[in-house]
Specification:
By secondary structure, the protein is an alpha+beta fold. The strands form three sheets. Strands 1-7-6-10-9-8-12 form a seven-stranded mixed barrel. The protein has a two-stranded antiparallel ribbon with strand order 2-3. A two-stranded antiparallel sheet has the order 5-11. The longest helix has 17 residues. It starts with a strand and ends in a 6-residue tail after the last helix. A hairpin with a 3-residue loop joins strand 8 and strand 9.
Length: 227
Amino acid sequence: MGVLKSVNVGVPRKNPWKTVRTTGIDKRPVDGPVAVAAPGPKGTGAVGLAGDRVYDVAHHGGDDQAVYAYAREELDVWAARLRRTLPAGVFGENLTTTGLDVDGALIGEHWRVGPAVLLEVSCPRIPCGTFAGWMADAGWIRTFIEAGRPGAYLRVLEPGEIRAGDPITVEHRPDHDVTVEVAFRALTLDSGLLPRLLVADALPAADLALVRRRVARMRVDQGGPAR
């Protein structure tokens, strides 16, 4: 069982790293309960936590990216590597966890956070230019990808309130072996892993469609049927 170390909500700030001139990547811990609910389709800027939002609505937000979780243990590894303090929320995560292998979670896994909220692991976080600019490191995207510890996006299956200190219990694990880390590596560095993702039907529909196209192309290139 894990623990919710902190709940983090974004503070709007200028974004000099994209044509979208505002970003909510600056997430900061909040006191007290925070309401969590499914935000609806991508395109409105809505996310799962009350008081938070995204501004690059074409690429972020919506039901499949309602909540972003990252492990405190991984932040500590990064802090040692980068030789700088990394407070909760610095990677833009809504949930900073402890005692939970976020990157080892299976796509489609269900987490009970506190007594009410039920979340479903949907996909890994893919780093973008805003993240690199926020970290003040021109090579950050490559560094983050090569580390292979992306954190997880989650859907909201059952709404409610959460707060720091809430327990996180894994209530369901699907019958496949596609973890967040495996999905991330398949989508970024190792296309040979892509066929494994076909069984992970909890991936976002757009990601699954992309995977199917790329796998079909790989099979044609290898001289086999596309199927």
